[in-house]
Write a structure and sequence with these properties.
267 residues, alpha/beta, Rossmann fold, Dihydrodipicolinate Reductase, domain 2, 2 domains, 10 helices, binds nicotinamide-adenine-dinucleotide
């Protein structure tokens, strides 16, 4: 039996890419796609939206029916939408793969509660490369003491609405974990004006926005006399879509719980 995979936010940049990736993955079929009420693409064939052959299913505004009809639903939308969708995943007990970034505490709490009744994979970055980088950054931060200043720089396209990126914050959390501290206690999410000297142990962030950059991240460990730089450059959104479909195949039928991409990738 093919894995039936639905896409919420199917007319978005990632949504269209996800539809095309599901259609191109052996053993998977598109179960349906939704958008916000009022989206001009509602009623369009999902294949046409994705730039592939028509698939005979149209874009709807009914996520409840989509969760009922899917083994797993892919969600790259907006924080409040993903929280609402997680409750639907819990209602139907079907897998939910959330790539949405910029989640705040209330949305996380809703998703954590939903994960008691459905398998949910929550990953600010679905690429294999970034997930390896997360592990390496944690290990490096563990090995290097606070004489090494950690700074994280990211760049994304001009349409991105949240900053720093979910991946940059994930890298910060990995570094903080390596040092045995919470990111909230050491994060410097931006700097402006007379900031004073850098506080020892802080993890700094800088954000660049422009053009069509898919996603670039660099973590610098800077000490007196030497510096280590490690990073990742995404040149295609396809890496995120492939990771999301992989997560959907992995998660269907798994016991309820909140999973990360490292669980999917076996890292
Ligand atoms: P986008 O704005 O192009 O697409 C989002 C889509 O979701 C839009 O079409 C919007 O109308 C739709 N949407 C919003 N609320 C909805 C709702 N309630 N129901 C149905 N649809 C709804 O944005 P994008 O570039 O595709 O990115 C979407 C999200 O995915 C962002 O948070 C981004 O940071 C994140 N992202 C994550 C990864 C990853 O690997 N985890 C990779 C790329 C992007």
């Amino acid at each position: 039996m093919a894995t039936r995979i639905g896409v919420v936010g199917a007319a978005g940049r990632m949504g269209r890419m996800l539809l095309a990736t599901i259609a191109a993955t052996p053993g998977c079929v598109i179960a349906g796609g939704t958008e916000r009420p009022g989206n001009p693409a509602l009623g369009e064939d999902l294949g046409k939206l994705a730039g592939i052959e028509p698939v005979g299913l149209v874009l709807t505004a009914d996520p409840d029916a989509l969760f009922a009809a899917s083994d797993a639903v892919l969600d790259f939308t907006a924080p409040s939408a993903s929280a609402t969708h997680a409750s639907l995943a819990a209602k139907h007990g079907h897998a939910h793969i959330i790539g949405t970034t910029g989640l705040e505490a209330p949305e996380r709490a809703t998703i954590e509660a939903a994960a008691k009744r459905a398998p949910i994979v929550l990953a600010p970055n679905m690429s294999l490369g970034v997930n390896l980088l997360l592990l390496m950054v944690e290990q490096m931060a563990k090995a290097l003491d606070t004489d090494w200043d950690i700074e994280i720089v990211e760049m994304h396209h001009r349409h991105k609405v949240d900053a720093p990126s979910g991946t940059a914050l994930g890298l910060g959390r990995a570094a903080a974990k390596g040092r045995g501290v919470s990111l909230d206690s050491v994060a410097q999410r931006s700097r402006d004006g007379i900031t004073g000297e850098r506080r020892k142990g802080d993890i700094g962030f800088a954000t660049l926005r422009g053009g069509d950059v898919v996603g670039e991240h660099r973590v610098t460990f800077a000490a007196e006399g030497e510096r280590i730089e490690i990073g990742h450059i995404a040149t295609s959104r396809a890496i995120f879509a492939r990771g999301a479909v992989k997560a959907a195949i992995w998660a269907q039928g798994k016991p309820p719980g909140l999973y990360a991409m490292k669980d999917v990738l076996g890292l």
